[in-house]
Amino acid sequence: MFITKKKIAMRIACFLGLVLTALSCSEDITGVEEQKPTPVSLAIPSNFPQPVYDLSVNSLTEEGIALGKMLFYDPILSRNNTISCGFCHQQATAFTHHGHDVSHGIDDKLGRRNSLPIQNLIWYRNFFWDGGVHNLDLVPLNAISNPVEMDEDTQNLMTKLKAQQRYQHQFKLAFGSEEINSTRFLQALSQFLATMVSGNSPYDKYVRGEGFQFNSTQLEGHALFKQHCASCHSSDLFTDQSFRNNGFSTPDDLLKDPGREVITLNPDDRGKFKVPSLRNIEYTAPYMHNGKLASLEDVLDFYSSGVNVSSTLDPILNDNGQPGISLTHDEGKKIIAFLMTLSDQQFLSDRRFSEY
Amino acid sequence: MSCDDDDSPPQGEGQLTLEFDNHVGEEDLELNQDYTNTNGEIFRLSKLNYYVSNIRLTTNDGKEFIVPQDSSYFLVMENEEESQEVTIKYIPAGDYNQITFTIGVDSLRSTMDITKRHGVLDPAQGHDGMYWTWNSGYIFFKMEGTSPAAPLDQDHKFYYHIGGYGGYESPSVNNIRETTIDMGNAVAQVRPNKAPEVHLHVDVLEFFKNPTTITIAEHSLVMFGDYSKTVSGNYVNMFEFDHVHN
Question: Quick check: A146 contacting B, CB < 8 Å?
C-alpha cells in the first residue's frame, strides 16, 4: 500500500500533537505547572515618534517589570545598602532629586551634575548630560559604579542579589529560572524604566484633540515657544537630543565640567550638554546641568540677559552678535504658562511607578 | 587530474592554542617584581590585562581562516594563568604561519545589545573590570603598577587604561589596534590529530619605547584622552612570535 502525502502529513501532525501535549503538561517537581511570564504591550502616545530602544530584544512582561521596580527601589544596589535609584529619582519631582542642585549620593558625597528626570527613556539615543552611555541597558551601571553615587561593584551586587530568596523567586518568575546574572538584572531594570512614559499632559491632550483647550496666554506662550525655543526643544519629546553650549557655563564652570568634550575629546564640544526635555519641567527644579538656577523665571532671565559668549556657544544663541534670546518679561511669563501644560499629573502619581 | 598523494592538502579540522607569555625583555614577567625599562625607570606591575579578539589565521599558501566572531573574544590576564592560553577549535587542517588579531574589542561588538555580550564581554564587570560605565566602552588594555618615577601624590602608582572604539554618535578616540604575527619559516601544523601551540612573547619593554618613548615620569596616568593613541601605538608592538610546538 502506498503511503500518501496526506497520510504522512497526518502522521507528522499526530506526532507533533503528542509532543505538544507532552510540553503543555510538563510539570516541575512541586507539581505546579510552569508559569510563563505575562507579556505586556506598551502604549505609545500617538504624538510620539518611534522608540529607539529595541523592545523585541527585551520583551516586556509583568514579572520582568515588577522585578525592575523591586531593583529600582532597593538600596542593595549601593555599596553600603543605603542608596536606591529612587533616592535620586523621586516620582513627585518627575524622578529627579528634589531640592538638590547636584546629586547627593553615598556617604553624603556630591556629584557635579543635576540628576535628570526618568521619563520616556526608550526614545533616547544616548543618556546623561554628556551622552556617554548609548544604550538604556547600560544606564544603571553608570550610577551603580560611580564612587559618589552608589559605589557598588556589580559583581558584588550579583552576589548580594543571589543571597536573597525574594530575588531568586522574582528572577525565576521573570526569566523562567532562578539564575541571577547581570544581563537579566539590567534587562529587568530596562523593562521597568521602559514603562515610565509621560505622554498625558494637558499639552498632549491638546495636540491629540482629547478635549483640552489652551487659554489665550498658553496659546501665545506656545507660539512664542515655537518661535524662540523649539529649534532645540523640538518634537513632542521637547528635545532634539543634540549637545549644545547654551552659554550657561562661565569660564570657571568650563574648567570644572567641560560636558560633552569629556566623551568626544573634541575641544569644539567644550561646554556642550544634552538639550534636556522640558516635560514635567514644573517639577524638576533646580535647572541646568549643574542645578544653579532655582526657577523657570531665572532660566528665562538667563536666556535673555545672562548668556556667556565663548567659541563653542551655539550659533542660534548668538544671532547678529547679540547673545541670548530677546524676550520681554511678559513674553517670558507666557512661555512659562505654556511650559506648565507639559506637567503630566497622571505620570507623577501613577501607582505603577510608585515606591509604596 | 592530479592524484599525487604527497601534494594533496591535509583534510579535516584541528585546533590550535595561542599562548600569550608576558615578558620583560628576555625575562618572564612576574607581578610585583622590580624591572627597569629602557628609559632607566624602575617599575613593577600589579596588573596587566588585555583583550585579544577577531583572530584570523593564514596558511603558508595564503588560505585564511577567520575564527567565528562569536567565539573570538578573549581576555588575557597576567594573574590568571588559564587566561593566557587561547584555544581555537574547528580550524581547517593546514600549515599556518600568520596570526592576525585585534588588541581590544571592535566597535560593532562594543555597541551590540547586552544579550550578545557575555563572559569576558559582560559590561557589568565591576570596579576592577575592563569596562567604562560612564563612557560605555571596553578598556582594551590595562597596565598598573608602581615606580619611583611616578609622582608622589599618586603614591608612585601608574595607570594605563586604554580604550575607545571611535565614538558612538560623534567621532572620538579610536584605539582599536590590529597586529599580524609572522612566524617566518615556522608553521603550526593543524591536523585532526595535531594540536599545535604557538608561543607569543608579549614584551613590556616595547610598551615604553616602540616606536615612541613613553616615560612613566611624564605619563604616569593615561586613560581616556588623546595620549592614549600613542600608548596603543606602542602596545600593539609588544606581541612577537617566539616558537611553536607541533
Answer: yes
DSSP result, A254-283? HHH--BTHHHH--GGGTTBEE----TTGGG
The alpha-helical segments, DSSP class H, found in B84-181 are: 107-110
Q: What is the model's pTM? A: 0.90
Instruction: Determine the Cα–Cα distance for residues B194 and B134; give it in Å rounded to an integer.
Output: 46
Q: What does the pLDDT look like over A25-81, one tens digit per residue?
A: 344 455 455 679 999 999 999 999 999 999 999 999 999 999 999 999 999 999 999
The answer to whether the CB atoms of A132 and B135 lie below 8 A apart is yes
- Characterize the bridge pairing of strands B13-24 and B197-203: parallel
Q: How many contacts (CB atoms, under 8 Å) link A and B?
A: 90
Option in A125, A155, A265 nearest B173 (CB): A265
Task: Please indicate if any CB of chain B lies within 8 Å of the CB of A266.
Answer: yes
Distance (Å, whole) CA A43 – CA A36? 22
Instruction: Enumerate the residues of chain A whose CB falls inside 8 A of the CB of residue B110.
Output: none
By DSSP bridging, strand B221-222 and strand B157-163 are parallel
Under 8 Å between Cβ of B78 and B24: no
Amino acid residing at B7: D
Residues in chain B closer than 8 A to A263 (CB atoms) = 135, 167, 170, 172
Q: A219: helix, coil or strand?
A: helix
Inter-chain CB proximity A265 and B123 less than 8 Å: no
B114-171 pLDDT tens trace: 999 999 999 999 888 999 999 999 999 999 999 999 999 999 999 999 999 999 989 9
Scanning the structure block, which residue is given the C-alpha cell 593613541? B229
Cβ neighbours of residue B68 closer than 8 Å, sequence gap 6 or more = none
Strands B42-59 and B64-66: antiparallel
Query: How close A134 comes to chain B (CA, Å)?
Result: 7
Residue A343 amino acid letter: S
Task: Say if residues A82 and A75 touch (Cβ distance below 8 Å).
Answer: yes
CB-count burial class (<10 Å; 0-12, 13-18, 19+) for A57: middle
Residues of chain B positioned with their CB less than 8 A from the CB of A145: 126-127, 133-134
Coil, helix or strand at residue B9 = coil
Residue with cell 489652551: A214
Q: How large is the ipTM?
A: 0.90
